[in-house]
Design goal:
The protein has 460 residues and is mostly helical. The protein folds into 3 domains: 16-106, Fumarase C, Chain B, domain 1, CATH 1.10.275.10; 111-355, Fumarase/aspartase (Central domain) (Fumarase C, Chain A, domain 2); 368-459, Orthogonal Bundle (Ribonucleotide Reductase Protein R1, domain 1), CATH 1.10.40. It is 60% helix and 5% strand. The chain starts with 15 loop residues before the first helix and ends with a helix. The structure holds arginine. Arginine (ARG) binds next to helix 7.
Amino acid sequence: MASPSRSGVFAADTDQRLEAYAESISFDSRLYRHDIRGSIAHAEMLSTVGLISSKEFQQIRDALTEIGAEIEAGKMPFRFELEDIHMHIEQALIERLGDVGRKLHTARSRNDQVSTDTRLWVRDALDRVDALLADLQRAFLSRCEADFDCILPAYTHLQRAQPVLAPHYWLAYVEKFARDRERVADCRRRVNQCSLGVAAVAGTTLPIDRDQTAAALGFVSPTANSLDTSSDRDFLIESAFVLSTIALHLSGWAEEWILWSTVEFDFIRLPQAFCTGSSIMPQKINPDTLELTRGKSARVMGNLQTLMLLVKNLPLAYNRDLQEDKPPLFDSFDTVEAMLELAAPMVRESELNREKIADRLEKGYLDATTLMEWMIRRGMPQRTAHHLVGAIVGEAMSRDVPLADLPIEVFQSHAPEIDDSVYDVLGSRNAVDAFCSYGSTAPDQVRAQVERWQTAIATA
Ligand code: ARG
């Protein structure tokens, strides 16, 4: 069968090799629900403005609904000569309704159709991602109460830095995913514009009502420039970027927990349901879920590059290159959704090895900066205190003891004004309690942040 997109201008049939090369049905069939929804809204508008009758609209609507059910049931055979999902659905309509079906494509092109379908699909997908992010935030937040008194070493350069409360650590990820959710919402605003009615590139001479179709499809408004819209894939690139930041956050978290689950760190026990074994080494419990999260994030970032490169040399407006946008787009959403689906139960079901963490908490001089600030509060210039505490830490290191175990004479040999009250800020527990700044790991600050998030997430 000749392709319906080949008009009477053609004198030769399509080479079959081109059909196989140009098809997109193998990946765009997943747009079918959105395509049918867009077509029903379009047909209703055509009847409102008098381009088709209301009876014709009803026939089209009912037939499209049946076609949707047929695709849903896997009963529609896909054929390369019909290229894409848009042509398959239109052809099925024509087979059912004849000339009435031939009217659906009035004042419409596949260029505005594919853009509209993709916007509808991306809008739904962004909503799914937002719900998964909210669930992951709830998973991190759910750890805060039970772990409130647990103290963890915070690292910079992967070297022990300062002590933090475990809930401060859990909330760090709640914040990261909150920014991701803001990016999702912001991106969604630009996705949520209706391309339908732009037709091929210049609009149409027919008296359509773009506001009606935009409203029927839940878009905020129709897009304002047909030439821009026909070429615009910013909304996909932004989505791929938003997904990349989510993947980056998940990948960093995965890397951290892979380290934390080693014998060397021994900070966390991962749920066995999300670990795998080794075919040769019987003792192995491997963190494959986390490794795959780290690994799959590479594809998500690669997809963003693919989409940017795809559009970078395109003159206005639609170019067939744009058909290549869907595999990376779908892959990014599929991958990030799967990553998020597994991250939430991993976070809920992992256990901190509190004893192992506590056993080694006084290693690494997590309280050194607190001691320096204690000296500053007593009037010593920061640079002087920094140097002095470094020397005291050096002495503690040579004795292989924590600062809290140094006798007062050692402190006084470095600075005679130091008295016994110095021990009030030494040791990780005292050091944590000494914090006071906004956003710090001070217990009352962390308590307030936990409560803020509990309210925010409960009311979201
Ligand atoms: N399958 C095409 C795509 O995904 C649909 C648009 C085709 N338009 C065209 N003028 N050939 O982009």
